[in-house]
Design a protein that fits this description.
The chain is of the alpha/beta class. It has helices at 15-26, 40-44, 48-55, 67-75, 93-98, 108-116, 142-154, 175-189, 203-208, 340-347, 351-356; strands at residues 10-13, 34-38, 61-64, 82-87, 102-105, 125-129, 158-163, 197-201, 216-219, 243-248, 251-255, 260-261, 267-268, 273-278, 294-297, 300-305, 313-317, 326-333, 336-338, 364-366. The relative contact order is 0.15. Residues 242-367 form the Alanine racemase C-terminal domain.
């Protein structure tokens, strides 16, 4: 999807805010801990290459979801360690070795497939994933972890790290978190051959469970200025949202009472109303369930009326404004603000998803 550069819809990314957020988090975790910035999913919609380049001197490495995301960073000149958090099948090993990309290995079945294919893993750096209770990928007991580490080393791999992922670190009830932490700690402490890097701390763990950090952390949504819990837990220190979403009025009309607006005629004016049209829609990630939410015009919250279309939305204005008047969908405008978390709560989802769904059609600009 091509970026629509010739319309006023734009996501503005404040790279200095990301840097400051990293500094803030790092100042609250134990010293001598390695820090990996998570830039998967296009850095949560912020732009993986631009973010990685900007923070490269602040972090020890990067985490991504898959091989293509890692290759994008390498092709952009990023030289630091890159760990793929998802599973890459053994077919991808030669390319990972060639580009010095670290792989996650999550099962003895992966090892057996590599052996069956006759792969030489010399030059491959990998991390073992432990399923401590998330139920997705990873080994589930000490014996399998020991056998996996030994088997990978026998094929020539450098087993650099071992890690897990917490399911409920961002929730008020920490009982599940404590069970996972205990399981992982016990497994790591009893390994026959313990890898150099041990990590379990994502954004939520780094914020609310800093005392449980091992020797490496993976900082994700928090560096972009979002509360990982949404509004469930209060942040212990300030972070700044790095992305704002803006557009402008492209059409303004005054409609009499009784006029329908949008697909399905789901909104009908009850009096004479000023309706403005904005060039953004669900193809941009501004989804249909945002009907009834609001935007900011001239410091005032203006409701979205009528259905969200693929390319346009309509809003009710307090008065007639000239074409080109700025409109804020996320961010601050005239003393009013809209956060990604507020958008998420309207959708019944999480702030991560709001930013990740912003499509490539929305250009990003960087300060």
């Amino acid at each position: 999807m091509i970026a629509s550069l010739h319309r006023p819809t734009l996501a503005k990314v404040d790279l200095s805010a990301i840097s400051e957020n990293i500094e803030q988090v790092v100042s609250h975790i134990p010293k001598q801990v390695q820090t990996f910035a998570v830039v998967k999913a296009n850095a949560y919609g912020h732009g993986a290459v631009e973010v990685a380049k900007h923070v490269s001197k602040q972090v020890d490495g990067f985490c991504v979801s898959n091989l293509d995301e890692a290759l994008e960073l390498r092709q952009a000149g990023i030289e630091q360690p890159i760990l793929i958090l998802g599973v890459v099948l053994p077919d991808g090993v030669p390319l990972a070795i060639q580009e010095n990309i670290s792989l996650t290995v999550a099962s003895l079945e992966w090892l057996a497939l590599a052996q069956k294919q006759g792969l030489d893993l010399t030059g491959l750096t990998c991390h073992i994933k432990v399923d401590s209770g998330m139920g997705r990928i990873g080994v589930r007991n000490l014996k399998d972890a020991d056998n996996l580490i030994a088997g990978l080393k026998a094929l020539g791999a450098d087993v650099e790290g071992i890690f897990t992922h917490f399911a409920t670190a961002d929730e008020a009830d920490d009982s599940k978190f404590k069970r996972q932490l205990s399981f992982f700690t016990d497994l790591v402490d009893n390994l026959t051959d313990r890898p150099r890097l041990v990590h379990a701390s994502n954004s939520a763990t780094s914020i609310w469970h800093a005392a449980t950090v091992f020797n490496t952390v993976r900082l994700g949504v928090v560096i972009y200025g979002l509360n990982p819990s949404g509004s469930v837990l209060e942040l212990p220190y300030n972070i700044q949202p790095a992305l704002s979403l803006e557009t402008a009025l492209i059409h303004v009309k005054t409609l009499p009472a009784g006029q329908d607006v949008g697909y399905g005629a789901t909104y009908t004016t009850t009096d004479e109303e000023v309706i403005g049209t904005l060039p953004i829609g669900y193809a941009d990630g501004w989804t249909r369930d945002l009907q009834g939410f609001h935007v900011i015009v001239d410091g005032q919250l203006c409701p979205i009326v009528g259905r969200v279309s693929m390319d346009q939305i309509t809003v009710r204005l307090p008065k007639v404004y000239p074409l080109g008047t700025p409109v804020t969908l996320m961010g601050e405008n005239g003393g009013a603000s809209i956060t990604a978390t507020e958008v998420a709560e309207k959708r019944g989802t999480i702030n991560y998803e709001v930013l990740c769904l912003l499509s490539d059609r929305v250009p990003r600009s960087y300060d």
